[in-house]
């Protein structure tokens, strides 16, 4: 099967300092691929390359087998790539409804966007008039996901969904993510470490020092790899 998203030999640098040294990673439709790694490993940079936010210094970005290297973020977004950045991509001073209604630029009607969002994330419906900044962290992530899904993405890029959230909330969010993948979306998740994400992961990669040190099925050998590369704790 052709991967919807593929990074091949990707190098990336900031101000001439190389931080990714040849990343090979592929995500197929319906798959959750998780990129794990300690602080500063290059996880966010990898997502930025995949979203076109940071152009690779070398290597290729392929979307559905087509070369999209160097394409600007807007073009990649139009091609179906959606990045949900760390820190919950919502507007805190706008209501839940207004956060959703901003997504009408996608060409969908207000009703369709709201109905789809509340059907998928029922917890948001009774909070439609509430400022997004006053939602719980988990609800904010649900809203960020709902906004992203309004673009009908083929490729969903998620940066540290678990940041600052209780393990139970993270587990619930990753159940939603698994469901999104089941509908045919290629999902690339970045996490420093969240046990919940491994439960829904089809393929895991461990990134350290800008290199993929290991990749494969998230089985017991992954845990051995993680303990080699982590100084942080496993939560
Ligand atoms: P974290 O989990 O801490 O966010 P990460 O694995 O996502 O880490 P990146 O944010 O991709 O790692 O950073 C990789 C390296 O690139 C780090 O050494 C970081 O300092 C550097 N870096 C990231 N963004 C920039 C930037 N805008 N300018 C310069 N260097 C950067």
Key terms:
single chain, 235 residues, alpha/beta, Rossmann fold, 2 domains, six-stranded mixed sheet, four-stranded antiparallel sheet, 8 helices, 10 strands, 26% strand, globular, binds adenosine-5'-triphosphate
Would you write up a description of this structure?
The protein has 235 residues and is of the alpha/beta class. It folds into two domains: 5-80 and 154-231, 3-Layer(aba) Sandwich (Rossmann fold), CATH 3.40.50.300; 94-152. 32% of the residues lie in helices and 26% in strands. The protein has eight helices and ten strands. It has helices at residues 43-51, 73-78, 96-101, 110-120, 137-149, 167-182, 195-199, 220-229, and strands spanning 5-14, 17-27, 32-36, 58-63, 66-67, 81-84, 155-159, 186-191, 203-208, 211-216. The chain has a six-stranded mixed beta sheet, with helices on both faces. A hairpin with a 2-residue loop joins strand 1 (5-14) and strand 2 (17-27). Helix 4 crosses helix 5. The longest helix is centred in the C-terminal third of the chain and has 16 residues, at 167-182. It is globular. The two termini are 34 Å apart. Adenosine-5'-triphosphate binds next to helix 1.
Query: Numbering strands along the chain, what is their spatial order in the largest sheet?
Result: 6-7-8-3-9-10
Number of continuous helical runs: 8
Fraction in helix:
25-40%
Which small compounds were modeled alongside the protein?
adenosine-5'-triphosphate
Spell out the CATH superfamily of the largest domain: P-loop containing nucleotide triphosphate hydrolases
Query: Mind summarizing the main beta sheet?
Result: 6 strands, mixed
The total count of strands amounts to 10
* Unreliable residue stretches: none
Structural class: alpha/beta
Mean pLDDT: 92
Radius of gyration of CA atoms, rounded to a whole number = 17 Å
What best-fitting shape do the alpha-carbon axes yield? Answer: globular
Q: What is the CATH class name of the largest domain?
A: Alpha Beta
Proper CATH architecture of the largest domain: 3-Layer(aba) Sandwich
How many domains? The number is: 2
Proportion of strand residues: 25-35%
CATH topology of the largest domain: Rossmann fold
How widely separated are the two ends? 34 Å
**Can you write the helix and strand succession as a string?**
EEEHEEHEHHHEHEHEEH
């Amino acid at each position: 099967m052709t991967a919807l998203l593929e990074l091949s030999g990707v190098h990336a640098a900031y101000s001439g300092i190389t931080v990714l040294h040849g990343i090979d990673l592929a995500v197929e439709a319906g798959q959750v691929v998780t990129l794990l790694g300690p602080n500063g490993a290059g996880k966010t940079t990898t997502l930025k390359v995949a979203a076109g936010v940071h152009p690779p210094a070398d290597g290729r970005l392929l979307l559905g087998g087509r070369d999209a290297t160097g394409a600007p973020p807007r073009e990649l977004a139009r091609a179906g790539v959606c990045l949900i950045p760390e820190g919950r991509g919502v507007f805190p001073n706008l209501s839940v409804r207004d956060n959703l209604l901003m997504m009408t630029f996608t060409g969908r009607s207000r009703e369709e966007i709201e109905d789809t969002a509340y059907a998928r994330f029922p917890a948001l419906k009774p909070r439609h008039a509430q400022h997004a900044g006053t939602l719980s962290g988990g609800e904010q992530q649900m809203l960020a996901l709902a906004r992203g899904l309004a673009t009908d993405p083929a490729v969903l890029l998620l940066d540290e969904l678990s940041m600052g959230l209780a393990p139970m909330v993270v587990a619930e969010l990753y159940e939603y993510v698994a469901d999104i993948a089941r509908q045919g979306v290629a999902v690339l998740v970045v996490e420093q470490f969240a046990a919940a994400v491994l439960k829904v992961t089809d393929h895991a990669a461990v990134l350290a020092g800008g290199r993929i040190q290991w990749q494969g099925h998230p089985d017991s050998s992954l845990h051995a790899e993680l303990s080699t590369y982590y100084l942080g704790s496993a939560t």
